[in-house]
Design goal:
four-stranded parallel β-sheet, alpha/beta, six-stranded mixed β-sheet, Rossmann fold, globular
Length: 414
């Protein structure tokens, strides 16, 4: 395994990776940096392909561990890349794929980040964990904290999806409902960490959730090679990603840079598309205005709880990745994204989360506008299972049958 250190994403100042760290002294994310040159001969695509570990930890050479015994895993990663069938509105895409993160433990991509973050926090002696969450991160933190034997304190908006609340309560986390947004929950977590000694696992406020999320980028290169029947690792032309805090987008961009330095890929990068909800689109607005930072988005609202993040500490890192990749940022209405969920379920057989519905509708718009070409390889990230959002869909319209009525099937006759 390579040695690693932490570097401030804003000032380049180095910080020790051997003690618990949150933000840098200027309040910006710390990012792990590995001695990649020392790995080039021993850590190769061929070596990875030969490994039998069915989790993201097959990439542990560029992960925050000093020995494999530290790893706290529930089998996260190794999610499928599913080719879309060319039916209905999907007909316009020749090479459209869905990276389906619903296959992760706890049903979302958040498992990747929490596995890495809790692994390192436990190894460095954290005795309790805390974080704000819009839902899925809370469930993942609960599971990995339980696996590590650590108490976990979670603060969520009071309108957090019921499935997430049950997940945390059953998992033994101390969970608190807050009459506000995730940004308000974050303020309470900061105060609690100062008062009670919790370790803060907030998005990008510790260095290693992004390391778990970056494995989506590593996996994708192998997935695309398999899909295109290539011996060489490949990246798609376009990636559409639903961004709240943006750790996944930032992590994948980091992974592509690491893979190039390892000699695994060349300079080609996918165009990165940040997808947000119309009711909460701080990154879209900042991108459109040419700004480097995205201020607090007022009156944030959307049924896609993972996108209801009005301010992100990694805003400048997301905007940097979008611009360097010649990508774009686009917002989708709640009506559109819920329609997207239905279309994915009814045409592709994938019950996506609302965020996944949003990226599909964003792809459809960009294809109609000509920004995406018909023959380009396009990957949509479905970041979680739709089962956690059942409360958004009604079944009151379903017909009732009286099984005691011998004529009950008559109403089904054409």
């Amino acid at each position: 395994m390579a040695s690693f250190q932490l570097r401030c994403s804003a000032t380049d100042k180095l910080y020790s990776a051997d003690q618990l760290q949150n933000l840098s002294e200027v309040g910006k994310p710390l990012l792990a940096e590995y001695d990649l040159a020392s790995l080039k001969d021993s850590f190769t695509p061929e070596v990875v392909r030969q490994r039998t570990d069915r989790s993201m930890w097959k990439f542990q050479d560029v992960m925050p561990v000093t020995n494999s015994g530290e790893i706290i895993s529930l089998g996260e990663g190794e999610t499928p890349l599913i080719p879309c069938l060319r039916r209905g509105p999907f007909e316009a895409f020749e090479r459209l794929f869905i990276k389906d993160e619903a296959f992760n433990p706890t049903g979302s991509f958040k498992a990747r980040g929490m596995s890495a973050a809790v692994t390192r926090a436990a190894a460095l002696g954290a005795t309790s964990l805390a974080l704000p969450s819009a839902g899925n991160a809370a469930g993942a933190a609960t599971a990995y904290a339980a696996r590590a034997g650590l108490p976990c304190f979670i603060f969520v908006p009071e309108d957090t999806p019921p499935a997430n609340l049950v997940e945390c309560a059953v998992g033994g986390a101390e969970i608190y409902l807050v009459n506000g947004l995730i940004s308000d929950c974050g303020r309470l977590v900061r105060e609690g960490c100062d008062r009670f000694g919790w370790f803060d696992l907030s998005t990008l406020k510790e260095p290693f959730r992004v390391e778990g999320k970056k494995t989506m980028g590593y996996e994708l290169a192998f997935d695309m090679a398999d899909a295109e029947r290539s011996d060489q690792l490949l990246l798609p032309d376009v990636i559409l990603y639903p961004a709240g805090g943006g750790t996944g987008l930032i992590g994948m961009w980091k992974a592509f840079d690491e893979m190039e330095k390892l000699g695994w890929i060349g300079t080609h990068r996918p165009r990165m598309v940040c997808v947000q909800a119309e009711g909460c689109q701080p990154i879209v607005k900042a991108y459109q205005e040419g700004a480097e930072h995205a201020p607090l988005y007022p009156n944030a609202h959307t049924c896609a709880s993972g996108l209801r993040v009005p301010i992100a500490v990694g805003d400048f890192l997301m905007l940097r990745a979008i611009r360097e990749s010649h990508g774009t940022a686009i917002s989708i209405s709640d009506t559109e994204l819920l329609d997207g969920v239905r279309e994915l379920a009814q045409i592709q057989g994938i019950y996506a989360c609302p965020e996944g519905g949003a990226v599909w509708k964003a792809a459809e718009k960009l294809r109609q506008d000509g920004w995406i070409k018909p023959d380009e390889a396009v990957v949509l990230f479905n970041t979680g299972t739709g089962l956690k959002y059942n409360h958004l869909f009604s079944t009151s319209h379903l017909p009732r049958l009286d099984q005691a009525d011998p004529h009950c099937l008559d109403q089904l006759a054409p």
